[in-house]
Amino acid sequence: MKCKIIDFRNPCSVPTETEMAVRRPAPTKSNTRILMTNDKKETNRRLASDDKRYLWHPFTQMRDWETDDPLVIVRGKGSYLFDALGKKYLDGVSSLWVNVHGHRKKEIDDAVIRQVKTLAHSTFLGLTHPAAIELAKRLVHIAPPGLERVFYSDSGSTAVEIALKMAFQFWRQNGEEGRTKFLSLKEAYHGDTIGSVSVGGMDLFHDIFQPLLFETIKAPAPYCYRCELGLTHPDCGLACAEELGELMRKNAACLAGMVIEPLVQGAAGMLVQPPGYLRRVRELCDNHGVFMIADEVATGFGRTGTMFACEQEGVTPDFMCLAKGITGGYLPLAATLATDRVYEGFKGEYADFRTFFHGHTYTANPLACAAALANLDVFGNENTLATLKPKIRHLRHELMKVEDLPHVGQVRQKGFMVGIELVRDKRTKEPYPLPEKRGIRVTVEARKRGVIIRPLGNVIVLMPPLSISEGELKKLVDVTHKSIKAATA
Ligand SMILES: *Cc1c(COP(=O)(O)O)cnc(C)c1O
After folding, report:
1. Do the beta carbons of residue 261 and residue 187 sit within 8 Å?
2. pTM greater than 0.90 (yes/no)
3. Ligand 1 within 6 A of 266 CB?
4. Alpha carbons 468 and 487: distance in angstroms, whole number
5. Looking at the chain, which residues constitute the CATH 3.40.640.10 domain(s)?
6. From ligand 1's centre to the CA of 459, what distance in Å?
7. 113-163 pLDDT, tens per residue?
8. Whose CA is nearest to atom 10 of ligand 1?
9. How far apart are CA 192 and CA 168, in angstroms?
10. 108-381 — its CATH code?
């Protein structure tokens, strides 16, 4: 039997050769900067070996990582990434859903360079600066009408935490102290910090933290392929939304807000909501006086075909959380937008302590704001959303051949967000057991063929940069098709 934890006092816990191989002596000062040489193979070897010796990667079983060959990315251009050996890969997931106009986009490169020559950082606590001011104005201008205030932070998780804390504090100091709870959807993903995990519903990632989380009320996920209520759309009449309404009615007095990923529950496997669902959520929130918090971290900045997903259902949330694509995939930045009503609820005498006591050191970092402004400029100058429309149709057409594969249960697409659910049995929808790592195997096959994609369990995700060409889109789907075939044969 193999032991997972290496403990030298325990005789059953002897490290394997590979485990030992990565255990090198601590570096001396002279050899800490060894990495780049003219020999590509040697550079790659050194980087890979130091990575395995010193790093811990997110969402990664490091035991597997240490025995694999890590892919070292040294350069990007357009829709492609290049590894240390010079091999090129199509970036099929926009570097985890952030890239918008491609890598090394000249306008964004230039904007960051200009900004770095002016001001790299200055605190936003008690001071302000032009890039943050201009960006806030632009965000309010493009956001659904009614969202009037921008609060910056630096990741999707913090953008959600901030909305939760604002909603909570609002009720505490505006006469409804009993509104302390949040409602969210099963299968939801809102980030990895404790508050955002509390409103999340992904047991695979977060179950272990249960004792640390605050209690939330969970409504059924609108996951039509595997409907929890055993119904079929559209005959169901959006029964899951009515169930949500029932939960709101029962808990109205104690609900501060409802958090939702609009149109698509991304990390759950690209669960596309049926038409009308989001609008119904807005109505229910209104009926029960509950704040609607739209987590547009993944869906924002053109991903679903419009600038923001909420637009497609004519919805203005009370809070909107933005991150991922906001800087075009360049730098960490996030924003929580709020209505005037919320904003006004925090005003008062200093001594009333109605202040929102929250802020991060790098709040509104000027380099990130400059990248975000350039990102928006490109949307305007290149008419990104208009040129995206035919590409979305093209992608839909290409995906038809994937749908026909014997182990593809469902292909879900909303704009440039695609989830391909693999199943062991197409007829019964029986899933593959997770230990078979089918999703991971597909991505390994794709990598061999020069395409980077990532799985979410048994769901293969495609999320290309909005700037991808039709030819590159075809290649992305062709390789995905071949890779699924190879990994499910
Ligand atoms: C990625 C994501 C987050 C978390 O963003 P981070 O920047 O990784 O903290 C939150 N919500 C949604 C919907 C996301 O897709």
Report:
1. no
2. yes
3. yes
4. 26
5. 108-381
6. 18
7. 999 999 999 999 999 999 999 999 999 999 999 999 999 999 999 999 999
8. 190
9. 19
10. 3.40.640.10
